[in-house]
Specification:
Aspartate Aminotransferase, domain 1; six-stranded antiparallel beta sheet; 3 helices
Amino acid sequence: MDVESIREYCLSFPDATEDVQWENDLLFRIGGKIFAGVPLDPAAPSALTFKCTPEKFSELIEREGIGPAAYVGRYKWVALESFNALPDPEIKELIRTSYDLVSAKLPKSKRTGKK
């Protein structure tokens, strides 16, 4: 995967939005809450961050090229050092799970399909 394919995939989810924050981080949100982030600076220590379940977090951080995300690792966010850290289908599945986890925590009025 690359930045553009991740962007297309994240924006394919209902009510997903994107913006740039902290000068060079492309963030994907649902209901104003971040579900994935891609640093746009090529020198950044990570290529992609996302939320996952506690079980998946424990499994992923044991793998080479993956670690707890800076500042939010305690909330079960992981950081991939490169897009090659995982196969594309697994990255897509993990991004979808992150979207679902974040969406589920939103107030009912902000959840997908609710107005």
